[in-house]
Design brief:
334 residues, 11-stranded mixed β-sheet, mainly beta, 5-stranded antiparallel β-sheet
């Protein structure tokens, strides 16, 4: 009887810990400011390959029109060229690189564009994009993240998007964070993984506040076969445990519970794990989930076996990847 009571007490403590973690995540989402940052439309590039980065500018400086956007090109992004914009002039500053870099067809580059400035006029109530292209040097390691400082000059005031989070600091605590570019291997792992009749795609997560011990992951799972399968368990190096949970509302109260029997995958059906519904609960995080990076989660299926999938870590208040374009359009009105 004493052992049974101890098990119940331990289970209750675990549930309380998870609920406290969820409350912290919810508070973090609520506390995200309405201010829309200057960000990269696609915050990822492959090492040793060409890249195209689009800076999204959703507003001016507290109501004032933007008249100039200046981008500092980080070391290791070479052969950079800006895309012209109708009605805007471009000024580029060139200089020597810190080292000689390998380029296409055996060429080596020792200097190139270090700064780009677009000058024109963008009213506060409008949204626009500024594009540059170039090549990612082969000197980086997969997982490296480059900060791209941007200075937004307006008719009244300046917004300097140049802040970089210190080690252990929550990047969402920064008021003017620099846009970040995550680097992947030249042969980047696929964002969707298939094994047997099971296809797992659209893996993502949200960044966690500093000190948080609970995170969540979301994927889409398709069973293309004629036999049922089941997602029975999950694990990740970054967390002590990974469980399959579902959230529902009962009598006006949100309730979360683990799916002890696993997630059923009927033949020919697709199941999507989403925020506010079924999800992967990462408990006992050993490190924060950092925006711009990815985490690996291993899924165990009854028939298909083990599959390692990538979860792309988005911002604290991010929506699912497929909803980002809609969110961007909404931010343009802030």
């Amino acid at each position: 009887m004493h052992a049974h009571t101890t098990q119940i007490t331990q289970r209750t403590a675990l549930v309380k810990s998870i609920l406290i973690g969820l409350a912290a995540l919810s508070a973090a989402v609520v506390s995200v400011p309405a201010q829309a940052h200057v960000v990269l439309d696609k915050a990822e590039a492959r090492i040793g390959k060409t890249f195209k980065s689009v800076l999204a500018v959703p507003h001016g400086c507290e109501g004032a029109a933007t008249v100039r956007l200046t981008v500092q090109v980080p070391e290791g992004l070479i052969a950079v060229k800006p895309m012209p914009k109708p009605g805007w002039s471009i000024d580029v500053k060139k200089g020597a690189y810190a080292r000689v870099y390998n380029f296409f067809h055996g060429a080596q580059l020792s200097e190139g564009v270090k700064e780009i400035s677009w000058s024109g006029r963008l009213e506060d109530g409008f949204y626009d994009e500024f594009t540059l292209t170039g090549f990612v040097a082969d000197t980086f390691k997969p997982g490296d993240v480059l900060s791209i400082p941007v200075v937004q000059d307006c008719e009244k005031g300046t917004a300097k998007w140049v802040e970089i989070a210190a080690p252990g600091q929550d990047p969402h605590a920064l008021k003017y964070p620099a846009p970040l570019l995550r680097l992947t291997s030249a042969e980047a792992p696929p964002r969707g993984v298939a094994k047997g009749d099971i296809i797992v795609s659209s893996g993502w997560s949200r960044a966690t506040p500093g000190g948080a011990k609970v995170g969540a992951g979301y994927v889409t799972v398709s069973n293309t076969g004629r036999e049922p399968d089941r997602l029975v368990s999950a694990s990740a190096d970054i967390a002590e445990t990974v469980e399959i949970h579902e959230m529902s509302t009962r009598d006006g109260v949100m309730v979360m519970r683990p799916i002890e029997e696993g997630l059923a995958l009927p033949p020919g059906q697709t199941v999507t794990l989403t925020s506010g519904g079924m999800h992967l609960m990462l408990t006992g995080l050993k490190a924060p989930l950092v925006e711009g990076k990815s985490v690996v989660v291993t899924l165990q299926f009854e028939r298909a076996g083990k599959m390692a999938v990538l979860l792309d870590v988005l911002g604290v208040g991010a929506q699912a990847p497929g909803q980002q374009d809609a969110a961007k359009a909404e931010h343009a009105h802030h």
